[in-house]
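Data card: per-record layout.
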Amino acid sequence: MDLTDQQIERYSRHIILEQIGGTGQAKLLDSKVLIVGAGGLGSPAGLYLAAAGVGTIGIIDADTVDMTNLQRQIIHHTADLNVNKVDSARAKMEAINPDVTVKTYHTWAKADNIREIIRDYDFVIDGTDNFPAKFLINDACYFERKAFSHAGILRFDGQLITILPGETTCYRCIFETPPPANAVPSCSQAGVLGVLAGVIGSLQATEAVKYVLGIGELLTGVLLTYNALTMQFRRINLNRNPNCVLCGDSPKITELKDEEQPVCDLKKD
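The structure for this 269-residue chain is written out next.
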């Protein structure tokens, strides 16, 4: 595709990069990235992908904006309270860049809808905050052979990994099933540093852009962890698990299902 004069000006800092250039920017404008979750991780990812000129951005979320979101979910503003998150997010992304088409899915990602949704996208960003959704995204991307970025944040710690289904370590290679109740608290129960979401969500957007452009080294086979208190990043090398229940030599999971959400009892000693 030929870039307009306005696009050449808008994306000039990309175009002058040898690894991107006009051809790479055209790739971004022709690409499609899906964000599952318009919260702490999806907020910075969505804003940066829109600014970068990713042509089509999908966003899935069934929630509405509430006051507790505003400490970290920077795509939503105080005026957006009680507004559907996907609508709030779309308005900000379109305001940043009119080149971008934002498709919204005001629903929860479930076993009966996620494969159909992700099928049309080049890359998926997991911005969810619960284990059943993360396992569902991993499994759906495996069956549809869609590359995706997994990430999670809690308190002062974050982690992420990029997964190329059928080629690299998948989420179930690391964690076979969701943890039991009371094993891991949620952000609403344990707290989370607001800016931590910005760090990790921005890294997810970086992985999406690199994947679309085919440049650099992706975080495949590597779990990157970050602690905001110590400002330390750590890379943990991981190998595919031949006994993985999903992508191993003798898989036990052959179709999608919705995992049960473990409930933490805060009163438990």
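Known properties of this structure: The chain has one domain: 31-237. Residues 194-213 form the longest helix (20 residues).

See the next section for split statistics.
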